[in-house]
Recover the amino acids of this structure.
């Protein structure tokens, strides 16, 4: 039954669009007649920060058909490097493969959940990605990468947890002037084009901190984290 | 309708588990930032054996692998149980973020997969998969792998070339980023059973201190490896 409805919907959309074109070329559409209503695909993405002391930078939530935002063993894209070192998602949200991209308004504090809605008209995107920086680190990020939502029906949802990754673009020195988050008083540097680490994306080894033997670290035991660090729930609501 | 298809599917799956050999394509990926894997050992075996088991004492063969990267003992143990074995698919060390892929043809009754490799630099840490049931339905299956401690050697974190069974110390830091002159983190190993590794400590002094490991390089969080098995 459901499948039938879906097929019907798919079939009728192009017909409506075509007739819409014809109408406009013939001028004067008849008042009150059916206009082509765009089909909107709308998702609610609920993200929870599972850490104790690692605020997340504003979330980048993206619908896309192609590509992914990172791969273990590959070098980080400039867009990812930017987000993972500074927490600024502007560049990533403007990446070529982004069909629809939304940034959450603010930093997501530990244990807090946040809901972000994202929509795309007339096309059901294949993938959804979420990327955010753990701001009291050099270049740690977490999120979900190209989650397959191509067959997600209205009312259905997918929930998952994920660990943290290391962009590999900045050494994990934990020095005050390299940590952009509140741990450094917000004085640390964000993005720096120099890549002085292994320049490959890996799982993150965790932070060491001053309390656990890194005498030059600006971080404390409160900034330690373990996997998983993020909980994501994606529901299609329209 | 759907339910019926499902039941038929189940019936097929159950049947094939006992009747047909399988061809597997296995990929192992090192997910860590600074840990190398020594030669990997992959075996498909039946349920009469296991390569390691959490909470049990390590076999002498597992100890050889976990302390020195020597897989010959475990490989022999598998072969004598009629397992299908692949030794050292990466032809040496598997560096951070690297992957290796190998084919494995399994005999009829060998429906469990085990994978091990030592982690360097550690005293007796290893990646481990114990008796993962090989799916009978063709497809691609991916899962994460945790780090274990063989429980056979104190985690002193001293790099001294010690890889032989019973010799304390870590054989080598393959990344060339280890230290020297450490006094040792601990001389005790009071839980002599295989367990989830508590992680290395390291320190920030490469010429002295407690540990020869670099605490910004040689730590890890689980998972440490990812395995994809394509069942053909």
């Amino acid at each position: 039954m459901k499948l039938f409805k879906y097929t019907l919907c798919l079939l009728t959309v192009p017909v409506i669009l075509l007739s819409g074109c014809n109408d406009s070329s013939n001028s004067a559409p008849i008042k009150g007649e059916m206009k082509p209503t765009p089909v909107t695909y709308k998702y609610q993405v609920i993200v929870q920060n599972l850490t104790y002391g690692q605020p997340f930078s504003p979330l980048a939530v993206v619908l896309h058909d192609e590509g992914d935002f990172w791969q273990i063993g590959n070098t980080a894209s400039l867009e990812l490097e930017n987000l993972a070192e500074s927490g600024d998602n502007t560049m990533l949200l403007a990446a070529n493969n982004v069909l629809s991209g939304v940034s959450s308004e603010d930093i997501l504090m530990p244990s807090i959940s946040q809901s972000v809605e994202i929509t795309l008209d007339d096309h059901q995107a294949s993938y959804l990605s979420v990327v955010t920086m753990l701001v009291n680190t050099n270049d740690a990020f977490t999120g979900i990468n190209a989650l397959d939502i191509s067959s997600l029906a209205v009312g259905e949802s997918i929930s998952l947890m994920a660990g943290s990754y290391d962009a590999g673009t900045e050494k994990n020195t934990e020095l005050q002037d390299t940590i952009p988050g509140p741990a450094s008083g917000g004085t640390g540097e964000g993005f720096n084009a120099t890549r002085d680490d292994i320049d490959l994306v890996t799982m993150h080894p965790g932070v060491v901190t001053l309390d656990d033997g890194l005498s030059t670290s600006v971080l404390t035991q409160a900034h330690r984290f373990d996997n998983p660090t993020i909980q994501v729930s994606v529901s299609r609501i329209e | 309708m759907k339910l019926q298809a499902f039941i038929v599917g189940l019936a097929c799956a159950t049947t094939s588990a006992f009747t047909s050999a399988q061809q597997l394509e296995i990929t192992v990926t090192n997910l860590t930032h600074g840990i190398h894997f020594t030669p990997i050992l992959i075996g498909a075996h039946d349920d009469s054996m296991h390569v390691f088991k959490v909470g049990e004492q390590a076999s002498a063969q597992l100890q050889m692998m976990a302390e020195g990267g020597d897989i010959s003992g475990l490989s022999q143990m598998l072969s004598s149980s009629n397992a299908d074995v692949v030794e050292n698919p990466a032809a040496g060390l598997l560096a951070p973020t690297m992957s290796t892929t190998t084919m494995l043809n399994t005999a009829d009754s060998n429906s469990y997969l085990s994978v091990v490799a030592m982690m360097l630099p550690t005293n007796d840490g290893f990646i481990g998969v114990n008796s993962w049931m090989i799916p009978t339905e063709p497809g691609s299956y991916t899962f994460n792998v945790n780090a274990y401690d063989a429980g056979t050697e104190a985690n002193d974190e001293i790099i001294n070339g010690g890889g032989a069974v019973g010799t304390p110390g870590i054989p080598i830091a393959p990344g060339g980023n280890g230290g020297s002159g450490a006094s040792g983190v601990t001389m005790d190993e009071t839980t002599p059973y295989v367990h989830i590794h508590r992680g290395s400590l390291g320190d920030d002094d490469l010429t002295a201190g407690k540990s020869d490991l670099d605490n910004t390089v040689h730590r890890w969080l689980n998972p440490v490896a990812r395995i994809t098995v394509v069942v053909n």
Summary: The longest strand of chain B covers residues 22-30. Residues 1-19 of chain B have pLDDT under 50 and may be disordered. Residues 48-232 of chain B form one domain.
